[in-house]
From TrEMBL:
Signal sequence coordinates: none
Gene name per UniProt: aroB
Protein name per its UniProtKB record: 3-dehydroquinate synthase
Residue ranges of every copy of the 3-dehydroquinate synthase C-terminal domain listed in the record: 170-316
Gene Ontology biological process terms from the UniProt entry: amino acid biosynthetic process; aromatic amino acid family biosynthetic process; chorismate biosynthetic process
Pathway the protein acts in: Metabolic intermediate biosynthesis; chorismate biosynthesis; chorismate from D-erythrose 4-phosphate and phosphoenolpyruvate: step 2/7
UniProt organism field: Campylobacter estrildidarum
Subcellular location per the Swiss-Prot or TrEMBL entry: Cytoplasm
């Protein structure tokens, strides 16, 4: 299956379970991590032909998505003497696609790159849409570019080696899409056999449907608002809280999707308070998150400190906090006029 992300001169295809032969008349630089390359590099190399192939691996984990790893990647690209026609392939999860895309966007003012995501989270979200970047001490993804890949190849086969936590983390981003865009998807999610899914033993069609639905929805959003000035902000549902949690736990306690799961539950409690969601809807989403063993609570030690970190969020403008909330099931909303007292009240519920 193929889904087009129609961005005029930057348009590209997302191929789902269609990775055949890739042939390039240039140098190719594969960015991966030791785990993924150990499991799947042989498969990728068997499908890849290029003038010369370079392989670079970086440490696995969100805590390494930083300036010093970026420098390591760029040094390896220079050592490989890549030119402006060379192609970078990001082969891994969201950390790899974010960093690979960023390195490609700044190397000699930009070279082409392709995403071959190997986690569910990267297939349903990170690898599509051209957000690239790194974290720093001020917050998550605060340094980066909008730079679209030339193609994305999502292969269900690569997802079969994922552990429970990684699959659940990918599911969290899919639940996000359902809550803000498509209520019917919640019924589908509820119908999934969670044991088979979390053991990566579900039918191939389940993975393909999750990826295809997410990519279809995301492509429509990105086509209308590539640089996130309005509609694309909705994709950050749950993320405003999640980014604070990830920052305060130094990116080393929760997988990104797990933090998003907690963030969605926090956002829902705020939405409940503002009468956008009712209790039944809030509880339904929490039940779905729990079905996939996702965390829904984080103990806030210092409410004021937590609140302060919100102000580093990229969605803010004029020092106003923008929250993405569910406005009934299947519909998202950007709220920029929430009384700080209402926000603090919810944070206190989690303290
Ligand atoms: N991950 C949210 C976005 O790509 O906009």
């Amino acid at each position: 299956m193929q889904i087009k992300v129609n961005l005029k001169e930057n348009a590209y295809q997302v191929y789902i379970d269609e990775l055949e032969n890739l042939e390039f008349n240039t140098k190719v630089f594969i960015l991966s991590n030791p785990k993924i390359s150990g499991l799947h590099l042989k498969t990728l190399l068997s499908k890849l032909k290029a003038q010369e192939i370079f392989i670079a691996t970086i440490k696995d984990g969100e805590e390494y998505k930083n300036l010093s790893t970026l420098e390591e990647i760029l040094n390896q690209m220079f050592n490989s003497k890549l030119d402006r026609k060379s192609i970078l392939i990001s082969f891994g999860g969201g950390v790899i696609s974010d960093m690979g895309g960023f390195a490609a966007s700044v190397y000699k003012r930009g070279i082409d790159f392709i995403n071959i995501p190997t986690t569910l989270l990267a297939c349903v979200d990170a690898a599509v849409g051209g957000k690239t970047g790194i974290n720093n001490s001020f917050g998550k993804n605060l340094i980066g570019t909008f730079y679209q890949p030339k193609a994305v190849y999502c292969e269900s086969e690569f997802l079969r080696t994922l552990g429970e936590r990684e699959l659940a983390a990918g599911m969290a981003e899919f639940i996000k899409m359902a809550v803000i865009f498509d209520k019917n998807l919640l019924d589908f999610i509820e119908s999934i056999d969670e044991k088979a899914f979390l053991n990566a033993r579900c039918e191939n069609e389940i993975f393909s449907k999750i990826i295809a639905k997410s990519v279809e929805l995301k492509a429509k959003v990105v086509e209308q608002d590539e640089k996130e000035s309005h509609l694309r902000m909705l994709l950050n549902y749950g993320h405003t809280f999640a980014h604070v949690i990830e920052n305060l736990t130094k990116y080393s306690v929760y997988l990104h999707g797990e933090a998003v799961a907690i963030g969605m539950n926090m956002a829902n409690r705020l939405a409940l308070n503002l009468k956008l969601l009712n209790e039944k809807e809030c509880d339904r989403i929490e039940r779905i998150l729990k079905k996939f063993n996702l965390p829904t609570h984080y103990k806030i030690d210092n409410v004021d400190a937590f609140y302060e970190v919100f102000f580093m969020d990229k969605k803010n403008s004029n020092q106003k906090l923008n929250f993405i909330l569910a406005d009934s099931l299947g519909k998202g909303l950007i709220k920029s006029d929430i009384d700080p007292k209402d926000i603090i009240k919810i944070l206190k519920e989690f303290s």
